[in-house]
Design brief:
By secondary structure, the protein is mostly helical. Among the domains are: 123 residues; 213 residues, Neurolysin, domain 3 (Orthogonal Bundle), CATH 1.10.1370. It has 23 helices and five strands. The protein has a three-stranded mixed sheet, with helices on both faces. A two-stranded antiparallel ribbon has the order 1-2. The protein is globular. The protein starts with 14 loop residues before the first helix and ends with a helix.
C-alpha cells in the first residue's frame, strides 16, 4: 500500500475504497508500544483523506444549497460512509486503549488516549442511524434557510443582503426591511419547528442509549469538555447578567435618546451584534465596494501587523480557497474549514459590503491562521484544537486588527468602526448566554411543548435582551431562536464563543500596551494545536480561563474605558 499507507488519489467518499485500509488497521498485530505508534500514524493518514472528502462535500453543498446533486452526495456520504466509520473508530479506539502497551506510549499521546477513552464510553451502535437522521434534518434546515429571499427595493435579495437596510438612517425603510425578513422567515417557521422537535427527540434518545440522564451530560462528554462544567456555564450566564447587562442597557439608552424613542424596536438595533443605524444620522459604514477590494486591503493590513500574518493571508488568496460573495442559494453565515490532507484552509462567507462583513472575514482569517500555524503537526488529532481556543484565534484577531482598520476608512469612520465593534462585544456576550441558557433548558426538559419553549425563550430574552418594543411581532419573537443555526447543526456549540471572547479581550489588553508581545503570544499558542489541554493553551497565550464576575469586571472595564475614549 505504499510508504504513506494510503495513495494520494484515494477517493475517500466511497466505503468500498476505504474498507481495505480499515480492515488492515483493525487486523494489524500489535506487539509493542512502537507498533501502536505506527498504527496511530497510519490511521491519522487515512483520517486526513476521509476528513477532506467530507469537507469538500459539505463545502459544495453550502456553496450551492439549490443543487440536488451536491446535497445528495453529502447525504449519501453521511448515511453510507460515516456510520461505518463510527463503528471502525470505536473498534480502533478499543484496539489501542485496551492494549497492555498503551501505558508505555510517550506523553505526546496522553490527550489523544484520554479522548479515545471518552469516545469509547459514549459510543453505542444503535445511535448510528439516529446520527444519520440528525444529519438529514440539519441539512434540510440549512437548505430552507439558504433558499430564503425577499423582494425588496425592486429586487430579489438574499438574507445577508437585507442586513444593509438594517443600518439605514431611514427608520421607515428599516422597519419595512426588517418586517419583510420576519414575514419571510415565518413562512418556513412551522417546518423549522418540526425539524427542531424531531432533533430534540433524536438527541435525547442518543443520550439515553449511551446511559446518560440528559443530552446535556452526553454532549459535555462528546465534546471533550474536560476543563469546565455545566456549573461553570451557569456562572458565565450570571456574570454576563451582572456585568454586561448594565453596559448594554446604557448603550441602548444612548441610542434611544438619540432617536427620541421611549423604547427601541427590533429594527433599531441588532440584539446579537449591536449593529444598527448611526445615532448621529451618518451614512452606514461601508469598508469596501467589492470582495477584491476587501481582500487587497486586508493583505496590506496583515503585512503591516507582521510579515508572518501577511504571508499567511497572501497564501490563502494564492490557494484560491475563498468563497466570499453572497448569492442566491448559498447557505447563510460564514466558516473556515481546514482541508486536512492538503493542509489548506477554506473560507466561506456572505459579504455584502458592511462593517460586519469585514469583521467576519477577519474572524475566519484568524481560524485560517490557526490552522496554518499548527499545520506542521504530524497527526490529525494534534491539529484538532479545542473549539474554545479555536475561537480565541478568530475573535482576538478581530480586536488586534482594530488599529489597521484605517486602511478602510478615514479617521472618523475608523473610530466609528472600532466603537461599533467594541459595543458588539458587549452585545455578543449576552447573546451567547441567551443561546447557551436556552440549550441547557431544552435538553434538561426534552418533553416540553412548543408553548413552554416559547415562554422560556421569552423569559431568557427578557433576562439578556434589550427591553424592546415588539408590538405586532410577538409571533416572530417567540420563534426568533430559529435564526441561530447552531441550535440545529451543532448543539451546545456556543458557549465556546463566550469563553474565547474573554480570552481574546485579555490578548487585546496586552496588545494595547505591547503589540509585539501579543502577536508572539498568539503565534506561540496557536502553534501548539491540540497538544496541550485547554487551560495550558490559554496559559501559553498569557491568558486566564475564568467565568467569575471579577474576571468579567476586569475585562469589560477595559472595554468601557476604550469606549469612553472613542467619540460616539
Amino acid at each position: 500500500m505504499g510508504s504513506s499507507f494510503v495513495p494520494d488519489d484515494l477517493d475517500a467518499t466511497k466505503w468500498e475504497n476505504l474498507e481495505p485500509y480499515v480492515s488492515e488497521l483493525l487486523e494489524r498485530t500489535l506487539s509493542c508500544s512502537s507498533c501502536i505508534e505506527s498504527l496511530i500514524r497510519d490511521s491519522s493518514i487515512l483520517a486526513e483523506h476521509i476528513s477532506e472528502a467530507g469537507a469538500l462535500l459539505y463545502i459544495g453543498m453550502t456553496c450551492d444549497t439549490e443543487s440536488e446533486e451536491k446535497r445528495e452526495s453529502f447525504l449519501q456520504f453521511s448515511s453510507e460512509v460515516r456510520p461505518k466509520l463510527s463503528e471502525f473508530s470505536d473498534s480502533l479506539n478499543r484496539k489501542m486503549v485496551e492494549h497492555p502497551e498503551v501505558g508505555n506510549l510517550p506523553k505526546r499521546y496522553d490527550l489523544m488516549i484520554r479522548a479515545m477513552k471518552t469516545d469509547i464510553e459514549i459510543f453505542r451502535k444503535e445511535n448510528i442511524p439516529l446520527g444519520v437522521r440528525q444529519t438529514e434534518l440539519v441539512t434540510e434546515a440549512q437548505a430552507i434557510n439558504g433558499a430564503m429571499t425577499v423582494d425588496f427595493d425592486g429586487q430579489e435579495r438574499t438574507m445577508p443582503q437585507m442586513r444593509a437596510y438594517m443600518e439605514s438612517n431611514d427608520r421607515i425603510e428599516r422597519e419595512a426591511a426588517w418586517t419583510a425578513v420576519a414575514e419571510r422567515r415565518m413562512q418556513d417557521s412551522e417546518r423549522l419547528s418540526e425539524i427542531f422537535d424531531e432533533l430534540i427527540v433524536i438527541r435525547h434518545q442518543i443520550a439515553t442509549n449511551a446511559g446518560f440522564d440528559s443530552f446535556t451530560d452526553y454532549m459535555f462528554r462528546a465534546m471533550h469538555r474536560f476543563d469546565y462544567s455545566v456549573e461553570d456555564c451557569i456562572e458565565f450566564h450570571d456574570s454576563v447578567e451582572t456585568v454586561c447587562m448594565p453596559i448594554l442597557q446604557e448603550i441602548n439608552k444612548t441610542r434611544s435618546d438619540a432617536f427620541g424613542l421611549d423604547k427601541l424596536c427590533p429594527w433599531d438595533v441588532n440584539e446579537k451584534t449591536g449593529a444598527g443605524p448611526d445615532i448621529h444620522g451618518r451614512e452606514p459604514l461601508k469598508p469596501f465596494e467589492t470582495v477584491e477590494e476587501m481582500v487587497s486591503k486586508l493583505s496590506e493590513m496583515f503585512h503591516e501587523m507582521s510579515e508572518d500574518l501577511g504571508g499567511m493571508f497572501d497564501k490563502l488568496v494564492e490557494m484560491d480557497t475563498l468563497d466570499l460573495d453572497t448569492r442566491k442559494g448559498k447557505a447563510p453565515g460564514g466558516y473556515q474549514y481546514y482541508l486536512e490532507k492538503s493542509r489548506v484552509p477554506f473560507i466561506f462567507m456572505n459579504a455584502a459590503g458592511l462593517q460586519g462583513d469585514l469583521e467576519t472575514m477577519i474572524h475566519e482569517a484568524g481560524h485560517a491562521f490557526h490552522s496554518l500555524y499548527c499545520g506542521h503537526l504530524e497527526l490529525i488529532h494534534e491539529r484538532d484544537y479545542p473549539i474554545e481556543f479555536a475561537e480565541v484565534a478568530s475573535m482576538s484577531m478581530e480586536l488586534l486588527t482594530q488599529p489597521g482598520w484605517s486602511r478602510f476608512y478615514d479617521d472618523e469612520k475608523a473610530n466609528r468602526a472600532r466603537r461599533t465593534h467594541l459595543e458588539g462585544v458587549v452585545f455578543l456576550l449576552p447573546w451567547i448566554a441567551t443561546i447557551d441558557s436556552f440549550q441547557h433548558w431544552i435538553y434538561a426538559n426534552p418533553g416540553h411543548s412548543r408553548e413552554e419553549r416559547a415562554q422560556v425563550w421569552l423569559s431568557i430574552r427578557d433576562r439578556f435582551g434589550s427591553n424592546m418594543d415588539w408590538n405586532g411581532h410577538s409571533d416572530f419573537r417567540e420563534l426568533s431562536w430559529q435564526q441561530q443555526g447552531h441550535l440545529y447543526g451543532v448543539p451546545f456549540y456556543y458557549i465556546e464563543y463566550g469563553i474565547a471572547q474573554l480570552g481574546s479581550l485579555q490578548l487585546w489588553k496586552t496588545h494595547t500596551s505591547d503589540p509585539e508581545k501579543a502577536l508572539v503570544n498568539y503565534a506561540k499558542a496557536m502553534t501548539l494545536g491540540n497538544t496541550k489541554s485547554l487551560p495550558e493553551l490559554f496559559s501559553a497565550a498569557g491568558l486566564k480561563l475564568g467565568f467569575d464576575e471579577g474576571h468579567f469586571y476586569s475585562l469589560l472595564g477595559e472595554v468601557g474605558s476604550a469606549l469612553e475614549k472613542l467619540p460616539a
